[in-house]
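Board notes, transcribed. Complex of a protein with S-adenosylmethionine.
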Amino acid sequence: MTNTPPVCDYEGSDYQASFWDKGGREYEDRTEAIALKRLVPPRGRLLLELGAGAGRNTTRYTGFDRVALLDYSRTQLEQAQERLGRSDRYIYVAADVYRLPFVDGLFDAATMIRVLHHMADAPKALGQVKNALRANGVFILEFANKLNLKAILRYWLGKQAWNPFTLEPVEFVKLNFDFHPKAVRNWLMELGFCIEKTLTLSHFRMGLLKRIIPISVLVFFDSILQWTGEWVQVTPSVFVKAKLVGRDGIPPFGQDGILSYFKCPDCGQRPLVDKKEFLECGNCKKKWGVKDGIYDFRESIK
Ligand SMILES: C[S@@+](CC[C@H](N)C(=O)[O-])C[C@H]1O[C@@H](n2cnc3c(N)ncnc32)[C@H](O)[C@@H]1O
């Protein structure tokens, strides 16, 4: 087992139902749908959705032939399966973002929405995304912004100890982090990404506004203001579209079956050997479970 940062575990959580379906988050969901429409490439072969949860956003990646939904929580993936069904179009993978089980350079695009805020070591997680993307692959990243207006005001009024203007992440609740936009940009650029677009979201994320103004009106004005993210980012949520320009040309991966996508997350060996109920690593002999349509790379089985 490799040494990786702790995981914020959603196993058994009713996050989709309590936060989205019954949580009064229509405004946030609709503004995210608009941002994804603006940022996700219209066509592609393979897309990796990191921390896919119950697949809330997955149907928004319509132009891609296949989507790999990766999440640490198996129960989240089961909910996604219920929503999306089982077909060759969707590959369900239980794994840790810090130990991706995919061969290098596999994906044309990757998305990570509402997940970076659980990363105690964000640069390490972003490095894994880089490895999984092909040259010129596109990465759509959402992150929670510590430099948001509310945090700035609270800091100036002396109601908040941490400084929103400094670059280090702030852990406001255990394993929940807000990031400075400049820090995220720096990490991405150091990894060889070029930032193509930045959108700001949730300009009107306030209970009172959501109660007194029709959601469609808020969504309309948010959708216009999203573009101001190119110049200033003081909203709670920021979306970035980055292209991986600085990586050596790994040849595009072949058209083989799904099995050829995987490598052993512990030793990197590929391909894995298909033993029906598990995939076996020919090098370290670890066995990775396959059950009810979900590939499980969290812990090897005995
Ligand atoms: C806030 S939810 C977001 C789900 C989905 N992206 C959405 O926006 O609806 C965060 C998800 O990230 C997953 N997650 C957190 N840490 C992870 C890790 N280290 N590896 C894989 N998934 C992780 C959780 O299991 C959870 O499903």
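The first strand starts at residue 44 and ends at 50. The chain has one domain: 15-261.
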